[in-house]
Amino acid sequence: MNYNLNDLQAKAPKRSTWSSLNNLLKLISHEKRNLWLAFFIILITSSINLMGPLVIGHTIDDYIFVTHKNYHGVLINCGILLCMYLVSLVTSYAQTMLMGGVGQRMLFTLRNSIFNKLQMLPVGFFNQNKAGDLISRVNNDTDKLNQFFSQSLMQFIGSIATMLGAGIFLLSINIKLGSAALIPAVIILLFTSVTSAWVKRKNAKNLKSVGGMSAEIQESLNNFKVIIAFNRRDYFRKRFDEANQQNYKTAIGAGIANNSYVPVYAFFSSMAQIIVFVYGIYLLSHGELGIGLLAVSFPSYANNFYNPLRQLAALWANFQVAMAGWDRIALILEMDTDLTPIQNGIEEPNGALLEFRNVHFGYADDQEILHNISFKLEQGKTYALVGPTGGGKTTTASLIARLYDPGKGLVLLNGRDIRTYDAAERTKKIGFILQEPFLFTGTVRDNILYGNERYVNYTNEQLEQVIKDATLGSLLAIFETGLDTKVLSSGDSISLGQKQLIAFMRAVLRNPELLILDEATANIDTITEKLLSDILNNLPKTTTRVIIAHRLNTIENADEIFFVNSGEVIRAGSFNLAMEMLLQGKRVS
Fold first, then answer.
1. Considering the domain boundaries, does residue 343 fall inside one?
2. H helix or E strand, kind and range, residue 158
3. Number of folded domains that form the chain
C-alpha cells in the first residue's frame, strides 16, 4: 500500500479553499459556541466603529452649519461617541482573549489528533515517510494554523464585517457616489479569485521544502557518529545545502506570491479615494450631497471599506499559508491503516501454533519478496531461520508478528486468522526482539515495563524478584545501578549489547506464547550469549521460539531449521544440510 505522503499529495485532486476550511471547522466543531460568540462580538465592534463617522458627519451638518454652532448638541454627540468607543474597547479585548483561547485549544486538538493517528498507522507508513517531514507537519504546519486562528481569523472576519457595513453606509448615504466608490473593489475581488490557487500552491511547496530540510537535519543528527567515523561531513553538508537552497527558492516564491496582494490592493484603494473626491465634488456642486457627509462621513466610510481591504491582502496570504498547512495535516488524518482487526476471519484449529498458508508479500505492490510460502510452527519447539542477507528472514518474522499483512494467503495463529486478533491480544501472545532494539529515555525499569501492565505498580524490590524468578537476574546484574540505570533513546548511555539485553528482558517478562529473536545476540559477547541461551532453555515448555541468527552455535540446538532465500522458505532438515544450503545460497547471491 502506498503511504508516501508527498506522492499522495501530488496525486490528490485539488481541493478548494472553502472545502478545506469546512473540513478544518468540523475538526474543531466543539469550539462552535466560542466561534459564534466571537463572531457576535465582532459584529458589535464593527457596528460601533461604523456608526462613528455617521454621527460625526451629522453633528457637523446639523449642529455646526445648519443650527449655527449648537455646542450643546455637539457635546451630547461627543458623549455618545465616547460611550461607543469605550464599549468597542471592551468588545475588542473580549474578542482577542476569546480567539486566543480558541487558537491554543485548536493547536492542542490538532497535535493530539495527528499524534494519535500516527500511533495507529502501520510500520509501512514510517518506512515510506521521513521522520523530519512528519515532525514538521506536527509542529510547523499546525503552528501556521494556530497563528491564523488566534491572531488573524477574527481580524479577517472583522475586516469583512467592517467592509460590508461600510459598503452599506456608502450606498445608503448616496447610491451614486457609493456605487462609484465600490467599482475598484470588484476588480480587487476578481484579482483575488484568480490568484488564490497560485498563492496556495506556492505556500504548499514552501511547507514541503521545510519538511525536507527538517528531515535532512534529523537524519544527520541521528547518524552523527557514523558521519564522524567516516569523515563524511562534506557529504551531509552538501545534502543540507541542497535542501536549504530548495527551501530558499520556495520561500522566495511564497514570499512573492504572499506580498503580491498588498500593492494591488493599495493601488485600487487609492483609486477609490480619487473617485470619491472627484465625483463627490461634482455631486456637492449640484446639491445632491452635504459638505459634512462629503468631507467626513464619505471619506471615513471609504477608508473603512478599503483599509480593511489592505489588511485582507496580508490576512488572505496568511489564510492561504494556513490552508496549505492544513492540506498537509489533513492527509495524515485521512490516512487509514491496513492492519485493522477483521471480524469474520477463518478459524481452523489444526494443532499448530502458527501457520503460513500460501503467503505472498512485497513491500511495494510491484515487487514481491516472498513467493507462495507455507509452513507450520508447533507449540513449545525452537525454530531457526537461516539464509543469506536479504533473503527474507526478517520479512518472514515481521509477518509472523503482523507488522505487515501478506498480499495473498493467510497467517494463522492458534488456528485463527491473525488479522482477527486486536493489537493488545496479539502482542500478549507474540514477543519480538528486534535486530536494532529501540529504547525510550528513562531507566532500565521504564523500558523493561514498557507495554507490560502486569508489573507497573510493583516496587523495585518486587520487580527484581520477578526478574530473578524468570532467571533474568544475571542480565540485570550487568547494569551498574540495576533498574535505576539511566537510559537515553539515542543509546549513548549504554552499549548496543546492553540495549539488546533490556529488549530481551522486556520480551521474556511478557511471557509470550511465541518469542521471535531477530539477531538478538548479534552485539553480545560469548559469555552473555551463553546466559541468554540458558534463559531461553528455561522458558515455559509451551513457549515457541523463532530464532534468526548467523552464528552457528545459536541455531545448532533448534528443533527445526528453515532456509530462507530468494523469497522461499524451505525446510532444511538437519543442521549440516542447513549449513550446506546457507553456503550455496551465499555463493549464488
1. no
2. helix 153-173
3. 2
Count CB neighbours of 249 within 10 A: 13
Q: Which of 435, 365, 451 is nearest to 398 (CA)?
A: 435
pTM of the model: 0.67
Within 8 A by CB and 6+ apart from 357, the residues are 374, 409, 410, 411, 412
C-beta separation of 145 from 203 below 8 A: no
**Helix, strand and coil in the chain, % to nearest 5:** 65, 10, 25
Distance CA 164, CA 515 (A): 69
The CB-side HSE value for 8 (13 A sphere, CA atoms) comes to 17
CA atoms within 13 A on the CB side of 528: 19
- Cell readout for 492 is 549513548
Residues 215 and 106 in one domain: yes
Q: What per-residue confidence (pLDDT) applies to 378?
A: 92
Length of the chain (residues)? 589
Series of mean pLDDT values for 10-residue runs along the chain (589 residues): 75 71 75 80 79 72 63 78 85 79 80 86 82 83 80 74 79 80 84 81 84 78 68 78 88 84 81 79 70 64 75 74 84 82 79 91 82 92 85 88 90 91 88 80 88 86 90 86 84 75 86 87 73 81 85 74 86 70 54
Give the orientation angle of helix 175-222 with respect to helix 153-173, to 10 degrees.
Answer: 170
Distances (CA, A) of 336 to 3, 20, 209, 330: 9, 19, 25, 12
Same domain for 180 and 278: yes
The confidence score (pLDDT) of residue 553 equals 64
Instruction: Provide the domain limits for residue 372.
Output: 354-588
Residues 181 and 96 in one domain: yes
Q: Give the Cα separation of 476 and 443 in Å (integer).
A: 12
Residue 575, domain CATH: 3.40.50.300
Round to whole Å and give the CA distance between 481 and 469.
Answer: 20
Nearby residues of 199 by Cβ (< 8 Å), 6 or more positions away: 257, 258, 260, 316, 317, 320
The gap from C-alpha 175 to its chain's centroid, in whole angstroms, comes to 51
Residues 514, 541: Cα–Cα separation, whole Å: 11
Give the pLDDT score at 340.
Answer: 80
CA–CA distances in Å: residue 304 to residues 51, 55, 172, 277:
11, 15, 15, 16
The counts of H helices and E strands in the chain are 23, 12
